Amino acid sequence: MSGNVIDDSVYEWILGIRNPVLTEIFRVITHLGDWKTILVLGLVWAGFMTFWGEKKKAISLVLIYVVAIGVNEILKAMIGRGRPPIEEALVLASRNSFPSGHAVFSVFFFGRLIDYWEEKVKSKYKVVLKILGAGLIMGIIFSRLYLGVHWLSDVVGGAMLGLIWFWMSKKVAETD
Fold first, then answer.
1. Is 137 a domain residue?
2. Structural domain harbouring 67
3. Is residue 152 within 8 Å of 10, Cβ to Cβ?
4. Is the peptide bond prior to 20 cis by the omega test (within 30 degrees of 0)?
5. Number of folded domains in the chain?
6. How far apart are CA 135 and CA 48, in angstroms?
7. In a 3-state reduction of DSSP, which class is residue 128?
8. Rounded to whole angstroms, how far apart are CA atoms 122 and 144?
9. Which long-range contacts (CB under 8 A, 24 or more apart) does 33-38 make?
10. What is the distance between the alpha carbons of residues 149 and 94, in angstroms, rounded to a whole number?
11. 118 lies in a domain?
């Protein structure tokens, strides 16, 4: 086990709630937080931003995202934390466990996407946008726990790092 009482307790609880329907749902949801999926979505979004005359914002979004990928990989290598037991994992995951890249990238990317569109939609839809976005982010993060490839502290740490990248990219975008 992880050696952390909270991580181990959450891990054991999740093993107890697994069922075939949830497993298939979370296998789909987890792909939305994959760095490659988010990179493609980000490039598409950056293309639209460029088309709409927001080239500096588009470039800063992509550059910050690429740096975030690199920093995340360096942190994983430096920290070297192992994943939960492979025999309970429902999907394959490579490299080390901390921080969760899915948590980092989903909080950063989908947080920025929500923030960007919040400025563009009518006020009556802003709450719906935030709820859907937060639900997506939380679903991606929980999927990593459910699928048995991260400890709770991995996804909490990843989400915190994602918030830092979100804040930094927001500050850069505001300077444009």
1. yes
2. 31-174
3. yes
4. no
5. 1
6. 24
7. helix
8. 33
9. 33/101, 33/102, 33/103, 33/105, 33/106, 33/140, 33/141, 33/143, 33/144, 34/102, 34/105, 35/69, 35/101, 35/105, 38/65, 38/105, 38/106, 38/109
10. 9
11. yes
CA angle 42, 31, 120 (to 5 degrees): 35
Q: Which two tokens stand for residue 47?
A: 């293309």
Contacts of 171 (CB under 8 A, 6+ apart): none
- 2 has pLDDT over 70: no
* 128 in any annotated domain: yes
**Structural tokens at position 76:** 């994983």
pLDDT one-digit tens code per residue, 39-96 = 999 999 999 999 999 898 888 888 888 898 899 999 999 999 999 988 888 888 888 9
At residue 15, what is the residue type? L
Rounded Cα–Cα distance for residues 174 and 176 (Å): 5
Q: Give the span between the Cα atoms of 62 and 67, in whole angstroms.
A: 9
Q: What is the largest CA-CA distance in the chain?
A: 51
- Shortest CA distance to 145 belongs to which of 156, 134, 161? 156
What sign results for the dihedral spanned by CA atoms 47, 49, 55, 60? negative
Look at residue 23 and tell me if it is in a domain: no
Distances (CA, A) of 134 to 6, 8, 122, 129: 24, 26, 18, 8
